[in-house]
Write a structure and sequence with these properties.
Blueprint (H helix, E strand, L loop, with lengths): L8 E3 L6 E2 L1 H15 L5 H6 L5 H5 L5 H22 L1 E2 L3 H10 L4 E4 L4 H11 L5 E3 L5 H9 L4 E4 L2 H10 L2 E5 L6 H6 L4 E3 L5 H7 L1
Parallel strand pairs: 1-4, 1-6, 4-5, 6-7, 7-8
Antiparallel strand pairs: 2-3
Helix pairs in contact: 1-4, 4-6, 5-10, 7-8
Length: about 200
């Protein structure tokens, strides 16, 4: 029996299941305009996947982060619908897990008010959704739900899987290369989730 018979599978959200990059960068650009703050969108792009407050900490002093987050979320909620798309193979990947009788667990650094409309815009759903978790916090969730694998697009995602003792599956659809993901502990690196169902059934 392959991995498909063993337990739930965790998935990251941004740039793993959905292409949220346009909405994220447009929202940061709007924050910069409204607050008169110079925000380097290239730098934001290179860190995609971290918590919003942590990213805002690169651009605002601590006492201005909460207000900047309010501005960001206002714009993101307006842009998530028209600017979010599902990544190739995402629907099929989730379907493969469910066809094996297992649960899809989405574990993301996104705030719940942003995660849910993003999923809705992409036509995806989670059997269980964990938000506001990143890095080692994801490892704790993976252990709690007894996951068998975690699929993500960043080195911290791979480190979380390794830390939780589950299969680390990298997908090179975000800001990091397959080499980056492998160096962080990915057992396998897929060019897109289109390859996930075959890997899942045979792993």
């Amino acid at each position: 029996m392959g991995l498909s018979g063993r337990g739930p599978v965790g998935f990251d959200l941004d740039m793993t299941l959905i292409n949220s990059r346009p909405a994220i960068l447009a929202s940061f650009a709007a924050v910069g305009r409204e607050t008169g703050t110079a925000i380097d969108l290239g730098a934001v792009d290179r860190r995609l996947g971290i918590k919003l407050d942590d990213e805002l900490g690169y651009w605002f002093p601590p006492d201005r982060i909460d207000a900047a987050a309010v501005v960001y979320r206002r714009h993101y909620l307006e842009l998530a619908g028209p600017m979010t798309t599902v990544l190739p193979g995402a629907q099929e990947a989730l379907a493969a897990v469910r066809a094996a009788g297992q649960r899809v667990i989405i574990i993301t650094a996104k705030h719940p008010v942003s995660a849910r409309p993003s999923l809705q815009a992409a036509g995806l759903s989670a059997d269980e959704l964990f938000t506001l978790v990143h890095g080692p916090e994801k490892a704790a969730v993976l252990r709690r739900v007894a996951a068998t694998a975690y699929v993500g697009d960043t080195p911290p995602d791979m480190a979380a899987a390794v830390g939780a003792g589950v299969r680390a599956v990298g997908v090179a659809t975000g800001s990091f290369t397959g080499e980056d993901l492998a160096a962080a502990g990915a057992e396998v690196v897929l060019t897109s989730l289109a390859a996930f169902p075959d890997w899942y059934r045979s792993a």
